[in-house]
Amino acid sequence: MKEWSSDRWVGVLAILASLGTLFVIVYQTNLYRKQQYASVLPYLEVWNSRNDDSYRLILINNGIGPAFIEEVKVIYQDSIYALDPAEFAQEVIMPIDSITRWGYSNISKGRLVPAGTQIELIQVTKDSINASKMWSWFSGGDPNRKEIPEIEFVYGSVYGEKWMVQKYGTDIPKKLE
To answer: Which residues in the chain belong to E strands, given as ranges?
Structure first.
């Protein structure tokens, strides 16, 4: 067996150094990509807020990036309604339970929810009777109500990642593949 010359050793070390450098570059690129995606992460939450004479159903983006709404639906009594909460209230709740003096903000596909923003989807102010009715519909505050509407939002980030959040489902955004 021949002994290796110094040229051969230098060549092997150069190849090993190149492979190590390639590994470090791939690893750093992966870290940068994760950091870049995390820097624009939207995080939607749906909250109920109530006091004596008011009620609010609020959509909040507690993330650090904008959320692009891709789908809104309400699931109620084994039916799926392609409606936002306000439209659901008008088409389903109002015929069952007359609620007057309430306000709303519609939200639909294509709407942008900037980071740190909240949207009052439904609000009743200075009206304890109607506030109580809305609270019972959207929070389960009425023990006689067997089923409450489940509100579902599918939304995306600026990089096209998609999440889903359900009020009365998971309540925590779930990343969709």
So the answer is: 44-51, 54-61, 67-76, 79-81, 103-104, 112-113, 118-124, 150-156, 162-167, 174-176
pTM above 0.90, yes or no: no
d(CA 77, CA 150): 10
pLDDT, greater one: 177 or 1: 177
Selection from 164, 149, 169 nearest residue 43 by Cα: 164
pLDDT tens figures, 78-111: 899 999 999 999 999 888 888 888 999 999 999 9
- Candidates 52, 98, 80, 55; CA nearest to 151 is 80
Residue 88 to residues 62, 65, 80, 107, 129, Cα–Cα distance (Å): 25, 28, 11, 12, 20
Q: Is 77 left (phi over 0), alpha (psi -120 to 50) or beta?
A: left
Selection from 126, 138, 125 nearest residue 48 by Cα: 138
123 and 104 in contact (C-beta within 8 Å)? yes
